[in-house]
Design brief:
Keywords: Acetylation, Cell projection, Cytoplasm, Exocytosis, Golgi apparatus, Protein transport, Transport. By secondary structure, this protein is mostly helical. Helices cover about 75% and strands about 0% of the residues. It contains 29 helices and no strands. α6 runs parallel beside α10.
């Protein structure tokens, strides 16, 4: 206490010191004293109130403890009285055993009396019940059946209570009521028959279906009651629980499965479209049945059955099982597509499970897939394998058919623009289009896969097409009279290449999500260009075979004295190009340019082969003028055919003519230099040949010109066009070898 008092004094001193830190605060001492007095009075009042409250609580607790003590004493006294009475009543209870037995016997006799009427009329009731079942009066039949079962069960229960080990009496009751179980089984058969025809019954006589459901619900209640009594007494009547509700769902499930399995009306042997028909019948049956369930059958079952969703699941499971069976069969390619299209697209569409009348009752997105993903993948792989094999055969047959057309004596058909063509591109891409349309029905990824496969097969097919075109040309060269329409069909082959390109681009735009070029695209483009260019080359070979004799006359003595070789060449080329106008762009333009190049090259070859050597200036002048004239003829002809600039190629002939026309030999080097500057690909052998044909250049002059040009040789690596090509040089070298090996 002293320590607490000291702490209180110290705290008070500290507070007073805090209040009186300035001299002006001394005036407020009285005010501070009154405030502290009020605080002290307030604290003391709260302390008194708290102590008073504690005292009141203690007083109340003591009063309650005193009352509890009195109650305990009363209870103790009462228990003592009860114990005394119980000891005194033991003998009395033992004396009442006979009464207890009498009560049990009375209960059994009462049950017997209560069921006495039914017991004596069992055979009659059995007969009436049998007749009612046969007349399809199911509710009345069930009511009588319940009466019979109730009498039997009550008697058995009382016997069980009296002596559960007495099996002989139990057996006697069972024998007497043995027809009851048969009636129950017979009634159950009728119920199951009604349920099996539920789709028909609900339309014709829905009350019959309602009666069946009511009977099953009654039996379910009795089952529950019997099971509860068994838990209490250990007794349950024979045949219980019947579990007719579970059996009902099993019957409905079997009915749905039978409905789905019975949709196959024809086999593959009888109808190639058997699967399409089967799937369509299945779709119609399922949709019609579910609409009936929604609009009619739901009203015949209790709401807690969740009837529509239950049937929805039953049909889904039945269809899934049937589809799996179909998938396990040895299906053809078109059948695989029909099945997968139906499974992946039709099934959940508005034509079937997604029908507007059904959507309000269920969510189709919660349905599991009809087929597992691995089964779908296996079917797709099988289809791709079969499709690859089939399309290879189809392409082979299409090409064989086209080859037969190449041998015809009539010209090929022309398109709306007058270009020759065969039916091959249309046949090929009709096949591709049909298969891609089918693949698109399955899903986008598979469509892309089939498109890539088509393009891959197309590339292989075009390589074969190229080989056949070469064989066609070689066959023609063995007898140029056959086939009669060789040129026209070779033009059609070239045009087909352009048609193939356009068709491929059309397919990609229509069926591909990606615009990126692939390796197959590049390979196809390359092969088509090669086929078209080779075809153009074959046609030009045909032209130049006809021109061969006339080309051999160029730069000969006969040519110098008045040959009409170039006139004939121009007429022949123009005649051929009347047919070549039936070639599509850009190949016709490329072919015209190539024809001009080859004509000029052949002309230059004639010069380089030194078929003639001019003997005097007059011959050189006459030959040069003739060359210039013929160069102009070529210019006019090919400008007419192609509408393009021909000066550079034909100018080579004119430039060579200028070398021949020169009269002053001292200016020969200058003229040759001009020629070399215009055509940098000219070789030393070419210059030597030109000077040899000119005929007046001495050995020293030739060496000087060639030597000087060699020293000042201009690179021609950047030249895009070439006319003095290696083949010209090669021909020149071959001529030299032939001359060297020629016997003197």
């Amino acid at each position: 206490m002293e320590e607490t008092s000291r702490e209180a004094v110290a705290t008070a001193v500290q507070r007073v010191a805090g209040m009186l830190q300035r001299s002006d605060q001394l005036d407020k001492v009285e005010q501070y004293r009154r405030r502290e007095a009020r605080k002290k009075a307030s604290v003391e009042a709260r302390l008194k109130a708290a102590i008073q409250s504690q005292l009141d609580g203690v007083r109340t607790g003591l009063t309650q403890l005193h009352s509890a003590l009195l109650d305990v004493k009363d209870i103790q006294s009462s228990l003592a009285d009860v114990s005394k009475d119980w000891r005194q009543s033991i003998n009395t209870i033992e004396n009442l055993k006979d009464v207890k037995d009498a009560v049990v016997q009375h209960s059994q006799l009462a049950a017997a009396v209560e069921n006495l009427k039914n017991i004596f009329s069992v055979p009659e009731i059995v007969g009436e019940t049998q007749q009612l079942i046969e007349q399809a009066e199911l509710l009345q039949a069930h009511r009588k059946l319940m009466e019979l079962e109730c009498s039997r069960d009550d008697l058995m229960y009382e016997q069980y209570r009296m002596d559960s080990r007495n099996t002989s009496d139990m057996h006697l009751i069972s024998i007497y009521f043995e027809d009851v179980q048969g009636l129950s089984d017979e009634l159950a058969k009728q119920l199951w028959m009604v349920l099996q025809r539920s789709m028909v019954t609900v339309r014709r006589d829905p009350t019959m279906l309602v009666s069946v459901v009511r009977i099953i619900e009654r039996e379910e209640k009795i089952d529950r009651r019997m099971v509860d009594r068994k838990k209490q007494t250990g007794f349950i009547p024979p045949g219980r629980p019947k579990k007719w509700k579970d059996k009902m769902f099993e019957v409905l499930e079997g009915t749905v499965s039978t409905r789905i399995e019975g949709t196959q009306a024809v086999t593959r042997e009888a109808d190639k479209m058997w699967l399409v028909r089967l799937l369509e019948i299945t779709r119609k049956y399922v949709l019609d049945d579910l609409i009936v369930v929604k609009n009619l059958m739901v009203q015949c079952f209790p709401p807690h059955y969740n009837t529509f969703n239950r049937f929805f699941r039953l049909y889904h499971n039945a269809v899934s099982m049937r589809v799996k069976e179909l998938a396990s069969e040895d299906l053809e390619a078109n059948e695989i597509v029909s099945l997968l299209t139906w499974v992946l697209n039709t099934y959940k569409s508005v034509e079937m499970m997604g029908h507007p009348e059904l959507c309000s009752e269920c969510d189709i997105h919660q349905l599991e897939p009809l087929l597992p993903r691995e089964v779908v993948d296996d079917l797709l792989s099988k289809y791709v394998k079969t499709f690859t094999s089939n399309i290879t055969g189809w392409l082979r047959k299409a090409l064989e058919t086209d080859k037969k057309d190449w041998q015809k004596d009539t010209e090929p058909e022309a398109d709306q623009d007058g270009y020759y063509q065969t039916t091959l591109p249309a046949i090929v891409f009709q096949m591709f289009e049909q298969n891609l349309q089918v693949a698109a029905q399955i899903d986008g990824d598979f469509k892309e896969k089939v498109l890539k496969l088509c393009l891959k097969q197309m590339n292989t097919f075009l390589l074969r097409y190229r080989e056949e075109a070469v064989s066609y040309k070689e066959e023609h060269l063995r007898d140029r009279q056959l086939p009669q329409c060789y040129v026209q069909y070779m033009i059609a082959i070239i045009n087909n290449c352009q048609t193939f390109k356009e068709s491929i681009n059309s397919l990609k735009r229509k069926y591909s999500q990606s615009s990126e070029p692939t390796d197959s695209d590049a390979a196809i483009e390359r092969t088509l260009n090669e086929v078209a260019k080779e075809g153009c080359q074959f046609l030009l070979d045909e032209v130049f075979l006809d021109l061969e004799s006339h080309l051999n006359e160029l730069l000969t003595r006969k040519w110098l004295t008045g040959s009409h070789a170039v006139d004939t060449i121009c007429v022949t080329v123009e005649d051929y190009f009347n047919d070549f106008n039936k070639i599509k762009k850009p190949f016709n333009q490329e072919m015209t340019s190539e024809a001009l190049r080859r004509v000029v090259v052949e002309y230059i070859k004639a010069v380089m082969q030194k078929r003639i050597t001019f003997k005097n200036p007059d011959e050189r002048k006459e030959g040069a003028e003739r060359m210039m004239k013929e160069a102009d003829q070529f210019k006019f002809l090919f400008r007419k055919l192609a509408g393009e600039d021909t000066d550079w190629l034909c100018g080579a002939i004119t430039a060579i003519a200028e070398v021949f026309k020169l009269t002053d030999p001292t200016l020969l080097f200058l003229e040759v230099s001009t020629l070399v500057s215009k055509y940098p690909d000219i070789r030393e052998e070419h210059i030597q040949a030109l000077l040899a044909v000119r005929g007046d250049a001495s050995r020293e002059m030739r060496q000087m010109i060639i030597g000087t040009l060699s020293e000042n040789k201009v690179s021609h690596s950047g030249v895009t066009q070439s006319i003095f090509k290696d083949d010209v040089v090669l021909n020149l070298r071959m001529c030299r070898l032939l001359k060297m090996n020629k016997p003197l």
